[in-house]
């Protein structure tokens, strides 16, 4: 099939690579000319494992372009994968979605299936259908389908090849679109969950809210564990063996971040509140997440007494390992807090960089080893594999202090202690 994808971000580029691998011809459209020019030269603007290789492998089947009209004319299917960030009040900013639909509307002369893959609040697929109709476009020229995406950054390609399910939200029991989606994803070995537009939109928000709830739950349990000499890693292990609970997303740490959980929880909260539905669970989940860094600042203060003027190394800038994405990264919140307290902050991340407006908050190093030289303490903020297996002998010899604050419970406590260092984790005994 000939498929158009609007928005060359994390989701759009992954979808482009995977659908091309499935044998489709893909036109990937992006407003940012620099991104498109880079992509045309084979330079991928984000770091995502296997993405560059898969795009390269399928380059004959992929066109990168800013020309939406020409691409839409060639395709019967249009995926919309533009960003849907939060507004100040927690509601979702649909500006990019509307701009994509404005562009699409100019080229709707033949029937197209428009698939909204972006995460959008309940009611949006319906609104977009009405929006096109209000522009005078005949409803016989388009069908809109909700097809939310569940990939995780850092394993996006794997996740898209191996989803748990494909969710399809249809308007008016639209069997035509269902058949088209089944054809597009013919290579997937996962059940199709077919529902209406709002059902699909809600599945996406409920999933992210539930996963964030698991994380805040275990972070809350970690706080209790610390007071009762229990180890949250053992508790999570015990909890996770119960299939009704499940072992995943029970890793205590400095809180969740990223481009999805924070904004999607706010958005769901907002959608509920405008209908006067109270969501105390969602609010508690966010409160725990907002306050999770406090205990690290407290632990550092207890160990080093005065923080002002002390040199401290923060390992990690990205919101999770194996990505360069820094959107809502708890590591950056931590760096900001330490900077505000007058700490001389030094950081290292294998792929991610501090944003321009925060570059003066810390010295970012090119190597791991240079980042902790003469530091009073190391704080692990992102669980990159290279931080798990550090050369602790070198760390001990290079540090001025002895504290290793493992904000992700990702290093072996015993190994660290064997090197004469002091280990503090999250909810550890
Ligand atoms: P992103 O910001 O990385 O990419 C969006 C891209 O769309 C940008 O490059 C932007 O320039 C482009 N764009 C905006 N308006 C455009 C237009 N009119 N025409 C062409 N291009 C346009 O966003 P993302 O992280 O890929 O997320 C996209 C959507 O998918 C969001 O709704 C997000 O919530 C959802 N989602 C993201 C993830 C994830 O892990 N990143 C996972 C699942 C779902
Ligand atoms: C998330 C959802 O998992 C995915 O299904 C959705 O499509 C997009 O949002 P992503 O944000 O890419 O994916 O990464 P994820 O692995 O979910 O991690 C999100 C945050 O939670 C990270 O900051 C991560 O460090 C944190 N996390 C995750 C924990 O603190 N503990 C855990 O056990 C798992």
Automatic annotation (TrEMBL):
- Which key words are in the record? NAD, Oxidoreductase
Pathway field: Nucleotide-sugar biosynthesis; UDP-alpha-D-glucuronate biosynthesis; UDP-alpha-D-glucuronate from UDP-alpha-D-glucose: step 1/1
Question: A GO molecular-function term, please?
Answer: UDP-glucose 6-dehydrogenase activity
Q: Does the keyword Oxidoreductase apply?
A: yes
Instruction: Look up keyword Oxidoreductase and say if it applies.
Output: yes
Q: Which reaction does it catalyse?
A: UDP-alpha-D-glucose + 2 NAD(+) + H2O = UDP-alpha-D-glucuronate + 2 NADH + 3 H(+)
Top-level division of the source organism's lineage: Bacteria
Q: What is its EC number?
A: 1.1.1.22
Q: Where is the UDP-glucose/GDP-mannose dehydrogenase C-terminal domain?
A: 313-413
Q: What general EC class does the enzyme of this chain belong to? A: oxidoreductase
Q: Which residues form the signal peptide?
A: none
- Give the PANTHER family listed for this entry: UDP-GLUCOSE 6-DEHYDROGENASE TUAD
Query: Can you tell me which family this protein belongs to?
Result: Belongs to the UDP-glucose/GDP-mannose dehydrogenase family.
Matching NCBIfam families: NDP-sugDHase
Query: What is this protein identified as?
Result: UDP-glucose 6-dehydrogenase
């Amino acid at each position: 099939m000939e498929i158009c994808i609007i928005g060359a971000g994390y989701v759009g580029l992954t979808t482009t690579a995977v659908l091309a691998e499935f044998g489709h011809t893909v036109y990937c459209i992006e407003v940012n000319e620099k991104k498109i020019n880079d992509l045309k030269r084979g330079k991928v603007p984000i770091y995502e494992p296997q993405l560059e290789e898969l795009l390269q492998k399928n380059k004959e089947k992929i066109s990168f372009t800013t020309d939406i009209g020409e691409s839409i004319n060639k395709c019967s299917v249009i995926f919309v994968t533009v960003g849907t960030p939060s507004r100040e009040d927690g509601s979702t900013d649909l500006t990019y979605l509307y701009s994509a639909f404005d562009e699409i509307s100019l080229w709707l002369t033949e029937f197209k299936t428009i698939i909204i893959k972006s995460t959008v609040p309940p009611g949006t697929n319906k609104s977009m259908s009405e929006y096109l109709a209000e522009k005078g476009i005949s409803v016989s020229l388009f069908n809109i389908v909700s097809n939310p995406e569940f990939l995780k950054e850092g394993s996006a390609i794997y996740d898209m090849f191996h989803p748990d399910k494909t969710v399809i939200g249809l308007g008016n029991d639209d069997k035509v679109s269902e058949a088209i989606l089944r054809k597009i994803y013919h290579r997937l070995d996962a059940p199709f969950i077919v529902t209406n537009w709002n059902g699909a939109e809600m599945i996406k928000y409920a999933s992210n809210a539930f996963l964030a709830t698991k994380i805040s739950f275990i972070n809350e349990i970690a706080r209790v564990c610390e007071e009762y000499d229990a180890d949250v890693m053992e508790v999570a292990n015990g909890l996770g063996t119960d299939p009704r609970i499940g072992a995943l997303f029970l890793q205590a740490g400095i809180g969740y971040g990223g481009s999805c959980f924070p904004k999607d929880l706010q958005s769901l909260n907002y959608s509920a509140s405008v209908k006067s539905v109270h969501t105390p669970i969602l609010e508690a989940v966010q409160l725990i997440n907002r306050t999770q860094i406090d205990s690290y600042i407290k632990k550092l203060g207890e160990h080093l007494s005065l923080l002002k003027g002390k040199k401290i190394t923060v390992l990690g800038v990205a919101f999770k390992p194996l990505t360069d994405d820094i959107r809502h990264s708890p590591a950056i919140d931590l760096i900001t807090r330490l900077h505000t307290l007058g700490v001389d902050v030094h950081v290292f991340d294998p792929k991610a960089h501090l944003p321009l407006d925060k570059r003066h908050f810390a010295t970012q190093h090119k190597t791991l080893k240079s980042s902790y030289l003469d530091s009073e303490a190391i704080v692990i903020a992102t669980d990159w594999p290279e931080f798990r297996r550090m050369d602790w002998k070198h760390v001990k010899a290079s540090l001025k202090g002895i504290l290793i604050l493992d904000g992700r419970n990702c290093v072996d406590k015993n190994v660290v202690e064997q090197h004469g260092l002091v280990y503090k984790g999250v909810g550890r005994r």
